[in-house]
Design brief:
single chain, Rossmann fold, 8 helices
Length: 234
């Protein structure tokens, strides 16, 4: 089911993206990952057997370069993303545009190119990585929340558009996952956040990866937003 499959994970050299990439690799798939800046994580990913390409997914020329190395694609995971914790009155236009260029434009560009390849085989899966804040909204993260909410809408619309061609499109929305992106919170703050989660703990990147593999393995699921947040907000 996984052998002879090609998977592309953007932002796949660390955190949630790395966990997703390694899960597919362990199953026998060919896995290509992108990164934009972290050379150390890129080297580590190469040592694990992942194919690594440096690319900023917000730039069309970079995305086209990535896809020039891929002739057939079975799974695209739009994981690359950036966050911003800031009150709106202090948020600059450049910051707003950077969040949307990576989180939304990047997903659009990669999905567009992936669709061209998947249409040839009349099958494929696109998974967008959103966030619990895309579902619920977060104070002091209005721009980030808006970008992640856009991914949920993009998922639902694209699933309807591509379903007739055998291509499925789904979304996962992680809650508070214990990754470097959340290192801005102290351990005390993380403990307080955990108290608000029904399962009483932060999630693990591997648990988000398991959700993505579920979406791959169940061929009759499309157009959904799958929360992976320990019950937070519901």
């Amino acid at each position: 089911m996984y052998e002879m499959r090609t998977v592309l994970v953007t932002g796949g050299t660390r955190g949630i993206g790395r966990a997703i990439a390694e899960k597919f690799l362990q199953k026998g798939a060919r896995v290509v990952v992108t990164y934009s800046k972290d050379e150390e994580s890129a080297l580590s990913a190469k040592e694990k057997g992942l194919e690594v390409i440096k690319a900023d997914v917000s730039k069309e020329e970079d995305v086209l370069k990535v896809f020039s190395n891929i002739k057939s694609l079975d799974v695209l995971v739009n994981n690359a993303g950036v966050s911003l914790i800031k009150q709106i009155q202090d948020t600059t236009l450049d910051e707003f545009e950077r969040i949307f260029s990576v989180n939304v434009r990047g997903a659009f560009l990669c999905s567009r190119e992936a669709t061209k390849l998947m249409l040839k085989n009349k099958q494929g899966l696109i998974v967008n990585v959103s966030s619990v804040w895309g579902e619920l909204g977060a104070s002091c993260e209005s721009v980030y929340s808006a970008s992640k909410s856009a991914l949920i809408g993009f998922t639902k619309a694209l699933a309807k558009e591509l379903g007739y061609s055998g291509i499925r499109v789904n979304c996962v929305s992680p809650g508070m996952i214990d990754t470097t992106m959340n290192d801005c919170f102290s351990q005390t703050e993380k403990d307080e956040i955990a108290k608000e989660i029904p399962l009483q703990r932060l999630g693990r990147s591997e648990e988000v990866a398991d959700a993505v593999l579920f979406l791959y393995e169940n061929g009759y699921v499309t157009g959904i937003d799958l929360p992976v947040g320990g019950g937070f907000g519901f």
